[in-house]
Design a protein that fits this description.
The protein has 754 residues and is of the alpha+beta class. It has four domains: 8-167, Histidine kinase-like ATPase, C-terminal domain (Heat Shock Protein 90, 2-Layer Sandwich); 202-441, Ribosomal Protein S5, domain 2; 460-590 and 717-752, Rossmann fold; 597-711, no CATH class. 34% of the residues lie in helices and 17% in strands. Helix 2 packs across helix 3 (99-105), helix 7 packs parallel to helix 9 and helix 11 (485-495) crosses helix 18 (695-703).
């Protein structure tokens, strides 16, 4: 039984299952080092640790070695047990005990090496079955006879997983970075092997070296080297020194907290080691923001009241952020959908800050209490709990269900964070001041929103006037295209399928919502039209009711292929992410991919040069020339819509068999199309904007579900997505310039797949 995906997500889950066993050894205090290597050319992944090593004695329940039991018996967990099972891993039969046995079953080949008790044990498997008995040898002279640990190397079965899937180094790197933050005693190393990865490793190495040269000194506490990676000789901390102004009720924002980094050695091994743990994690989450207090509030309580549950939390509010970034973990497993530990954290923060605000008279007796979302505005935080018997809601482990954990986390946060706030009145005043500002802004936004609704009623329509709505009632089949300007809107309205496709033209660049409060948001005409047209609810809503009013199954961003189009697309993505993150989490957001060029055949060789015409006139002329040539009738190859952000940003030039006319989607496509064509046998038509395309062209290449290409944008890491938007759309010029300079030469549509 395999409950999961055969796509990219499932592929990475194989790595995480093996990795989790090594991290378990770290958390048990038995290991301090973990190494992960990925060979992109061969597909082999290797995970090694210096823990106790998988036991190899005969297991009483299976009659096989414990190592073979773990790798071939479903639900044989990776935990050491007591009593008789101390000689091997327990056969738990737990709900989530699929672990390494499933990885073995989904691998074409797997090799295990174990070091323990002065011996080296090896065994190989193919598609889940042992191909030879366990082989053992004593460690000889020149070898470390005290060595312990486990190394698992596997290659996924390409007959099971979807064609074309491949490991994404950045996805694995992000997970390893998280684990290094969560387990401050561990040193985690990562290496990528293979063609395209070399460039990425070199770039990462340059970034690490640049950071080491430019950064250094002491952090805000005067402690030199806080958060230094294991191999660094100086502090890799950063203080950009930039400040943002604040209102009268909030003190001036303090400089950014130091930000930890990783290091890469000459052999390509990237090292993650963060001695500051969750404190450094929060500083890293807020690395592009201006904190209200220089050091995060931190608390850790192990074995709370004898329950066996441990709670660790770090929190830091920022002056220049209008949203919160909260990340939760259970036994180092990231719970992307929250759970009882996150509920306990939020409840405690709301109650504690309101209580302290009233006792300090910041809130008067007659004032309403501050809502939780306003209390958390600008908050970056991490809560990690260790639960002996976690109960997850579903097989994906994305949400914790243990009801007792909520009360435990609530109590720890209320006590520890409350005491820290009382000891730092300056920080507390800044946090309460920001929360009160958020509350006032929300009230202004509410009035503005009601004004928008009343205005809609007065014009006898609840939908924007420029919206060409679809006639069908099936929301799942309905889709809306957000296009750039009236010209593109006109072509799209003529080309669309009126039953299922709606068109909303936008007037230029919409408001940059990254640094605007809710009142400004609702007062903007373009933003109001978007909210009403899409049927979105109140900003920040989550859960089942968040998208109850959504009118379309697909929200498709269709902008021009120039710089302005990319800017508008990014503004739209910023709005959708900040206003309703649920759209991404539930897979409703797509990017349309229109062609950039069309290569038209020239009948009879080269033509005389004519004065070129621009815009629609040129497109019409090209269309007419096409119709004169029977061989120039183009049928676009049907291409399945991309279902994940891992799809390639460009496609092969589309053409009908036996024809010479080709649509090209980027310069690489154009080069391929022109490679074997003699000079003078073709003309190139460049579509500067969608408005230059004839309706039939726009339908065939971009709107027709049977032939178009769509890129679905999903959230792999909400914290990283938030950081990217803050970096690109915020008001800090230096970090944005560094991003553009380092990635501009290779940036493409895939870089927007959040």
């Amino acid at each position: 039984m395999y409950i999961g995906s055969t796509g990219v997500r499932g592929l990475h889950h194989l790595v995480y299952e093996i990795l989790d066993n090594s991290i378990d050894e770290v958390q048990a205090g038995e290991a301090t080092s973990v190494e992960v290597s990925v060979d992109l050319e061969t597909g082999w992944v290797t995970v090694a640790d210096d823990g106790r090593g998988i036991p190899t004695a005969i297991h009483p329940a299976t009659g096989k070695s414990s190592l073979e039991t773990v790798l071939t018996v479903l639900h044989a967990g990776g935990k050491f047990g007591g009593g008789e099972s101390s000689s091997g891993y327990q056969v738990s039969g737990g709900l989530h005990g699929v672990g390494v046995s499933v990885v073995n079953a989904l691998s074409s080949a797997l090799r295990v090496t174990v070091w323990r008790e002065g011996q080296e044990h090896t065994q190989s498997f193919e598609r889940g079955n042992a191909i030879a008995p366990l082989a053992s040898r004593p460690l000889g002279e020149g070898e470390d006879r005290k060595r312990t640990g486990t190394k698992v190397a596997f290659r996924y079965d390409d007959e099971i997983f979807s064609p074309g899937v491949a490991f994404e180094p950045e996805t694995i790197r992000a997970r390893l970075r998280e684990l290094a933050f969560l387990n401050s005693s561990a040193t985690i190393r990562f290496k990528v092997i293979g063609g395209s990865s070399k460039r990425a490793v070199a770039a990462a190495r340059r970034a690490a070296l640049d950071s080491a040269e430019e950064e250094g000194g002491a952090d805000s506490d005067g402690v030199v080297g806080r958060g230094v990676p294991a191999t660094a000789s100086a502090a890799d901390d950063e203080d950009e020194g930039e400040k943002t102004s604040s209102s009268a009720s909030t003190p001036a924002a303090l400089p950014s907290s130091p930000v930890p980094s990783s290091t890469i050695d000459a052999e390509g091994w990237e090292t993650f080691h963060f001695a500051g743990g969750l404190e450094e994690y929060v500083r890293w989450l807020n690395r592009d923001k201006s904190p209200l207090h220089p050091r995060p509030f931190y608390a850790r309580v192990d074995n709370v009241a004898g329950t066996g549950v441990g709670v660790e939390v770090a929190l830091q509010w920022c002056a220049d952020s209008f949203s919160d970034t909260l990340v939760g973990f259970v036994n180092s497993v990231k719970t992307v959908d929250g759970g009882t530990h996150m509920d306990g954290l939020k409840a405690a923060l709301t109650r504690t800050i309101n209580s302290l605000a009233r006792s300090s008279k910041a809130l008067k007796d007659g004032d309403p209490s501050l809502p939780g979302d306003h209390v958390r505005e600008g908050l970056g935080g991490v809560v990690a709990v260790r639960v002996p018997d976690p109960e997850f809601e579903g097989q994906t482990k994305t949400r914790l269900g243990n009801p007792e954990v909520r009360k435990i986390v609530d109590g720890v946060v209320a006590k520890e964070v409350g005491a820290a706030l009382e000891l730092d009145p300056r920080a507390f005043d800044a946090i309460v001041g920001k929360a009160m500002q958020a509350f006032k802004a929300a009230e202004a936004a509410k009035r503005a929103r009601e004004l928008v609704r009343r205005k809609s009623v007065l014009v006898k329509s609840t939908l924007p006037g420029k919206l060409a709505d679809c006639t069908g009632a099936d929301k799942e089949r309905s889709e809306i295209f957000l296009v750039e300007g009236d010209s593109a809107g006109g072509s799209a309205k003529q080309a669309r399928d009126r039953a299922t496709q709606a068109i909303l033209p936008l007037r230029g660049k919409i408001l940059n919502v990254e640094r605007k409060d809710d009142a400004s948001l609702y007062k903007n005409a373009e933003i109001s039209d978007l909210i009403v047209a899409l049927g979105l609810g109140v900003k920040g809503e989550s859960g089942e009711g968040a998208l109850a009013g959504l009118r379309y199954g697909k929200v498709i961003l269709l902008t021009d292929a120039d710089v302005d189009g990319a800017h508008i697309r990014t503004l739209l993505l910023t709005f959708l992410f900040r206003y309703s993150r649920e759209l991404f989490e539930r897979g409703h957001v797509f990017v349309g991919v229109p062609p950039l060029y069309k290569v038209n055949p020239v009948r009879g060789g080269a033509r005389k040069k004519k004065k070129t015409k621009g815009g629609a006139a040129a497109a019409a002329e090209a269309e007419e020339a096409e119709m004169d040539d029977e061989e120039a009738v183009v049928e676009v190859e049907a291409e399945a819509e991309a279902s994940s952000s891992s799809s390639s940003s460009s496609s092969k030039p589309k053409k009908a068999p036996g024809t010479a006319a080709v649509y090209c989607y980027d310069d690489e496509d154009l080069a391929k199309a022109l490679k074997d064509r003699p000079a003078g046998s073709y003309t190139i038509q460049r579509f500067k904007g969608l408005g230059e395309m004839m309706p039939q062209q726009l339908w065939e290449t971009t709107l027709d579900p049977s032939s178009r290409t769509l890129r679905r944008l999903t959230l792999k890491d909400a914290a990283e997505a938030s950081h990217l938007f803050s970096l690109l759309m915020g008001d800090r010029v230096g970090p944005r310039r560094e991003l553009i300079e380092s990635h501009g030469t290779r940036m493409n549509l895939e870089d927007l797949d959040i």
